[in-house]
UniProtKB/TrEMBL annotation:
Keywords: Cytoplasm, Kinase, Phosphoprotein, Phosphotransferase system, Transferase, Transport. Its main location: cytoplasm. This is Ascorbate-specific PTS system EIIA component. InterPro entries: Ascorbate-PTS_EIIA_comp, PTrfase/Anion_transptr, PTS_EIIA_type-2_dom. The lineage of its organism: Bacteria, Bacillati, Bacillota, Bacilli, Lactobacillales. The phosphoenolpyruvate-dependent sugar phosphotransferase system (sugar PTS), a major carbohydrate active transport system, catalyzes the phosphorylation of incoming sugar substrates concomitantly with their translocation across the cell membrane. The enzyme II UlaABC PTS system is involved in ascorbate transport. Residues 6-148 form the PTS EIIA type-2 domain. It comes from Streptococcus oricebi. PANTHER family: ASCORBATE-SPECIFIC PTS SYSTEM EIIA COMPONENT.
């Protein structure tokens, strides 16, 4: 599963959106995946239920969250969406997030060995959150992903399949 290709194919980059709660922000991140058929609508419910039970375990760094649920919670195919918010939302643990990269993975193996390295590569770019927040177009986001392709985290990954 190639991050850049998945975002492009699913038309799942949405920039500068407004959300009044973390639940609404997660909905905005999952909506493109529902619209593209990558996940069923109940995938959103599974993320909310899981967050309420375990807390926002998918906040990976200050300002960034990767909302996701288990494959059996309605994932039809591997996909990503990327959403930036005009203003941060605050999760139940007090952490603020303005960039959400939702993940739909058909297996835990894809989640761990293919999706996570690509996400780390993107977010290890200098000022990645601020840069994503300032992106005005899908092309700018895709250019950042392209810039991250030389990351050591991606060595040995076959991202063309």
């Amino acid at each position: 599963m190639n991050l850049k290709q998945a975002l492009r194919e699913n038309h799942s980059i949405r920039l500068g959106l407004a959300a009044s709660s973390w639940q609404e922000a997660v909905k905005l991140a999952v909506d493109p995946l529902i619209e593209s058929g990558a996940v069923k609508p109940e995938y959103y419910d599974a993320i909310i239920e899981s967050t309420e039970e375990y807390g926002p375990y998918y906040i990976l760094m200050p300002g960034m969250a990767m909302p996701h649920a288990r494959p059996e919670a309605g994932v039809n195919r591997d996909a990503f969406s990327l959403v930036t918010l005009q203003d941060s939302v605050t999760f139940s643990d007090g952490k603020e997030v303005s960039v959400l990269l939702a993940l739909a993975a058909t297996s835990s193996q894809i989640h761990t060995s293919v999706a996570i390295p690509q996400i780390i590569a993107l977010f290890e770019l200098e000022n990645s959150i601020a840069r994503l927040e300032s992106c005005q177009s899908e092309e700018e986001v895709l250019a950042m992903i392209e810039e991250s392709k030389d990351s050591p985290y991606l060595e040995g990954l076959d991202l063309d399949s």
